[in-house]
Amino acid sequence: MKSLQEVLRKLFQSRMNIHLAFIFLFLATFCLPSLIIGLPGAKLFRVVLYGIFLLFCIYLGRWGCKKWLLSNEYQKFIVFSCIAVLVLAVTGILGSMLLTNNSVIAISITVLFAVVLFFSLGSFFSITRTTILRQLNEARIAQEQKEGELRLLKSQLSPHFLFNVLNSLYGLSLKRDDKVPYMILKLSGLLRYSLYDTGNHFVSLQSELDCIEDYIELEKMRIGARLLLDVNLSREKINDVLIAPMLLMVFVENAFKHSTNTKQRDVVIKIDFRLVDDWIALIVKNNMPGEEKQTAPMNNSFGIGLSVTKKRLELLYQNKYSLETSGENGFYETNLKIKVK
Length: 341
Fold this sequence. Notes:
Elements: H1 4-13, H2 15-37, H3 41-69, H4 74-99, H5 104-174, H6 180-197, E1 203-204, H7 205-223, E2 227-233, E3 242-243, H8 247-259, E4 267-276, E5 279-287, H9 298-317, E6 321-328, E7 331-339
Parallel strand pairs: 2-4
Antiparallel strand pairs: 1-3, 4-5, 5-7, 6-7
Helix pairs in contact: 1-5, 2-3, 3-4, 3-5, 4-5, 5-6, 5-7, 5-9, 6-7, 7-8, 8-9
């Protein structure tokens, strides 16, 4: 289904259709009172001629506005307007004198007022149409830029994610671990999700959580007994909830990547996810990489994954999310909240 924005843009760009519709509606509205009261054919003909004359005033004003006013040639537009109004007024007065028996003063005042009004109305129509077209075009360009940036960000994120997963698989393959075939199976699921299921800007929250669980299984096999893991991925009320793909995964992946660099014996990771009052809430905690890096800003240590994710959050959710990070007591903590779409 075409967006309303695109429909409006095409409507305003379809000149023939909009002009024919406007002329028909104008004449029908202008002549309707005369038809209702049942004017004789001769007088009705005069009304139609007067309507056509006013239409000419509108289109002449529109043409002058489009040619000079919208091109910032104000002096030429003013000169043209004065000459056009004068010629139209004289033509209208002479025509009305031939068709009616009213006084010259009454005819002159009525015609002059009508000419100025409808000539200005034509200029107004031209300015309005141009403004709407410009706004629609700017909105379309902005949307295309946004989608292009999202595609670029996603293309940056997928290699980053896959690179870390393959490193994990490589580590186990060196040990000739019999878990490698199972890991390859899990990795195939992650690849499928990353390459095929994330083609849209949003996927089901269920799919994102499945991907996180597969990734956690891979890391549990790689790290082994060193891993002290506390995971709670609540799936209550998540049916029909959508989220940007790989958005939650980034924080889980970074927790594993950085905590495994710790000098401590144990790798401590806590992951808590739940849906609270139409808000997606994710808390991820992991121990710091090393004593010498405890004072390092968290944002710097997360690298490309977090920077790309922040840009995606801003593009897709704008003011409908919060992201807080901190590093203290030997732990990094990420607290993410996203308003459900």
